[in-house]
Amino acid sequence: MADESVKVAGKSYWESSVTGVMNTLRDALVALAPHLEKVKIPLKDTPLVDSWDDISQTLFYYFVIETARYSVPELGDKGYGWAEYEHDYGDYSRLALVEAVPKGEGVPDLPEDHHLVFHSYQSRTDVFDTVRCRVTDGKMKYTGRILDLDRRGREYRFRWRMKDGTAKYLDDLKVEL
């Protein structure tokens, strides 16, 4: 879904997709890289890498989590915890999260009930060219396995658990302006 603004019954909405928002987050991180390097905050291999982590986490919160909360009011109203950028959890079952859709190049065969929880963007060959995912089992417990996948063509969706325990997914976003 392309990003666009629409007007319905006198209300304005912004429509996008989880994939679109995640790609925008990555583009923002890539755009910041040369500016942060100018003030001696390089991407890696220095004590200041924590500054990058803080910036990335903040942008993830406002670009991704806040967009989800405005697009799906129940995610904001019921106090859902979120899997945060570059944070590690042993149990994701009670968290709302971004899931990398388990298809495409580089995704190994996984059991059908396993999930790829978005963890962070990493730099391998180019700036933020890799998506790091943590693999969870059918109960959303971390398996100990990390996958680093090429970000090109990667698709994402939001996943959260309802009170009755069923998982709910969202690909497309609609935010009232």
Structural write-up:
This protein has 177 residues and is of the alpha+beta class. The chain has one domain. The protein contains three helices and ten strands, in the order ββαααββββββββ. The chain has helices at 18-38, 49-71, 73-77; strands spanning 4-8, 11-17, 81-82, 95-100, 115-122, 130-136, 142-150, 156-161, 167-170, 172-176. Strands 3, 4, 5, 6, 7, 8 and 9 form a seven-stranded mixed β-sheet that branches. A three-stranded antiparallel β-sheet has the order 1-2-10. A hairpin with a 7-residue loop joins strand 5 (115-122) and strand 6. Helix 1 (18-38) packs antiparallel against helix 2. It is globular, with a radius of gyration of 17 Å. The relative contact order is 0.20. The model has no long low-confidence stretch (mean pLDDT 88).
What labels would you give this structure?
177 residues; 28% helix; globular
Topology:
Elements: E1 4-8, E2 11-17, H1 18-38, H2 49-71, H3 73-77, E3 81-82, E4 95-100, E5 115-122, E6 130-136, E7 142-150, E8 156-161, E9 167-170, E10 172-176
Parallel strand pairs: 3-4
Antiparallel strand pairs: 1-2, 2-10, 4-5, 4-8, 5-6, 6-7, 8-9
Helix pairs in contact: 1-2
